[in-house]
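BUG: 3D viewer hangs when loading the predicted structure for this chain

Environment: internal workstation, default settings.
Expected: structure renders.
Actual: progress bar stalls at 90%.

Input used:
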Amino acid sequence: MNKTYKLKKKINFLYIIFSSSLIFIIIYKCYLLFKLCFSSLLFLFTLINLLFYPTFFLTLLFILFLL
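Structure tokens produced before the viewer hung:
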């Protein structure tokens, strides 16, 4: 009886650790995806500015300030 209870407790503990780490990994992957999208948007923004606006340097400074 006591051994089974300890085993169940251990399995429950491992399950909690596994599920929390899985949630953390999912959140981290979402963060990386968001970061990638944000950097590509900044890259597109700088390209458009480089092509169309003469004040590209000021915009670049502004972007560097944001980062």
